Amino acid sequence: MITRHISGPIHHRIVEHGDTVYIGGLVADDKSKDMKGQAEEIFAKLDKLLETAGTSKKKLLQVMVYSSDFNQKDGFNEAWKEWLEPADMPVRAYLGVSDLSPNTLVEVVTIAAK
Q1: What's the structural domain count of the chain?
Q2: Cys-Cys link to 111, which of 13, 62, 68, 98 (CB 3.0-4.6 A)?
Q3: Which domain holds residue 95?
Q4: In this structure, what CATH number is given to the domain that contains residue 27?
Q5: How far apart are CA 104 and CA 79, in angstroms?
Q6: 41: alpha, beta or left, given left = phi > 0 and alpha = psi -120 to 50?
Q7: Which tens digits make up the pLDDT trace of 13-67?
Q8: pTM of the model
Q9: Can you point out the beta strands (E) in the chain?
Q10: For 74-97, how does the pLDDT look when each residue is reduced to its tens digit (9 = 90+)?
């Protein structure tokens, strides 16, 4: 069974299939923040979305990180390590991309278990 949450004009924010939760790309609203600040804002959004789907960051399976400034990876990693306990860290890829929306430094896509 597929369950969809938070409908938008071009996608649903959350899609559940069985015991797996998929959350589409999240970006910060405040683009004036540095990489760490944007990551912290994304993680706060992600916590709420995971809760909406009946799960939590402790059940993350995979995180794909798209960064428009690979040189700021340390700022992202700092926020990441503050947000997650070492035992709960999922598999992750950190990819450099040539462009995101204006002043967007990072976008995060996640998969979690229920």
Answers
A1: 1
A2: 62
A3: 2-113
A4: 3.30.1330.40
A5: 16
A6: alpha
A7: 999 999 999 999 999 999 999 999 999 999 999 999 999 999 999 999 999 999 9
A8: 0.95
A9: 2-7, 12-17, 20-26, 60-67, 91-96, 106-113
A10: 999 999 999 999 999 999 999 999
